[in-house]
Amino acid sequence: MRRAQELLRHRIPNGDLNEIFDQALDLLVRDLEKKKFAATDRPRRDGPATSVASRHIPAAVKRAVWQRDQGRCTFVSHNGAHCCERGELEFDHIRPHADGGDASVGNVRLLCRRHNQYESQRFFGLWQAEGEWDSAQR
């Protein structure tokens, strides 16, 4: 904290720790959003198309999905209840990659970890300890 106070003396002359902490958190959130959701003020032009066999989700798709889904889980239960989770978000292929689903904006959504695992189990079934699929869960 002392080092941050010293480095920020020109912008925060009184060394106010609350202001320094606010600026540090802003930078941390911006950095995490950039890494996880490809958030940027100046996106690059689209690069070469991603191979259908690739699991990679292009940055432009991540940005578009993040914006469309408003940074929250999009899961809706059978009774119409919406998940409101904003943490532990993951990109999910609506039609799974293993079933030929592509990494397009129309086939990718945000789900929290719990609902991503739930959707995976609904599609693929539960893996048993013996290493066999439990088809009753499908």
Question: How would you describe this protein?
Answer:
With 138 residues, the chain is an alpha+beta fold. The chain has two domains: 2-36; 56-128, DNA Binding (I), subunit A, CATH 1.10.30. The chain contains four helices and four strands, in the order αααββαββ. The protein has helices spanning 2-7, 17-37, 59-68, 113-124, and strands spanning 89-93, 108-112, 126-127, 133-134. It has a two-stranded antiparallel sheet. β3 (126-127) and β4 (133-134) form a beta hairpin. The protein starts with a helix and ends with a strand.
- The percentage of residues in β strands lies in 5-15%
Q: pLDDT average, as an integer?
A: 83
Number of helices: 4
Q: Could you tell me the radius of gyration in angstroms?
A: 20 Å
CATH level-1 class of the largest domain: Mainly Alpha
How many E strands?
4
* Unreliable runs: none
Structural class: alpha+beta
Anisotropy-based shape: elongated
N-end to C-end Cα span: 53 Å
What is the correct CATH architecture of the largest domain?
A: Orthogonal Bundle
Q: Tell me the series of helices and strands, N- to C-terminal.
A: HHHEEHEE
Could you estimate the helical fraction of the residues in percent? Answer: 25-40%
CATH topology group of the largest domain: DNA Binding (I), subunit A
Largest sheet: 2 strands, antiparallel
How would you write the strand order of the largest sheet? 1-2
Subunit organisation of the chains: single chain
Q: Number of folding domains? A: 2
